[in-house]
Amino acid sequence: MNKSEGAEENMGFGIGVYVKSSVEAVELYQRVFGLELGYHVKNPDGSFFHSELFRNGECFLSVVEAAKENNDESLVQLGYEFDSPEEVKRAYELLKEDGVIDMPIGELPWSPCAASVVDRFGVWWYLSSASHRPPEDYDYWNKK
Fold first, then answer.
1. Which of 78, 82, 93, 134 is 20 to 30 Å apart from 10, CA to CA?
2. At CA 25, angle to CA 2 and CA 7, rounded to 5?
3. Taking 60 as the threshold, does the pLDDT of residue 21 lie above it?
4. Side by side, which strands form the sheet with 75-82?
């Protein structure tokens, strides 16, 4: 099974882009880079809350609809998946020094330990451990 079919392997580094018109962006990036849409979650308006684009079975890029308050910004987030929650916590503690916490460390439906922080150099990081897919019928918006 390749990773786009749901095999649970550590991702390592990943790139996430936060854009307006995420559906159109996904379609463009699929054509430009020869990517396939893998796991994805849509917002109620049909835009992407989360999308994974794969090339040759490997995750190449994640595209997310930018928040309304980021109208004039182009946002790129670097992600790293660690082997354990302890490693996430260590990295989080180091990166948050003189940085800005975007999402405090905690559990998510797809990771037992995750956080988001902008370090003192302005790099936006998403840190997680042991990502997994929530059940297909998981409703992110109603948390069930």
1. 93
2. 15
3. yes
4. 36-42, 48-55, 58-65, 13-19, 75-82, 124-129, 111-118, 100-108
> Which pLDDT does position 120 carry in this prediction?
85
Q: What value does the mean pLDDT take over residues 10-31?
A: 83
112-122: average pLDDT:
89
Tokens of 27: 């379609």
One-letter-per-residue 3-state SS of 92-138: HHHHCCCCEEEEEEEEECCEEEEEEEECCCCCEEEEEECCCCCCCCC
CA-nearest of 48, 58, 69 to 15 is 58
Mean pLDDT of the chain: 81
Six-digit token string for 108 = 């998510």
Task: Quickly count: other Cβ atoms within 10 Å of residue 128's Cβ.
Answer: 22
CA atoms within 13 A on the CB side of 14: 24
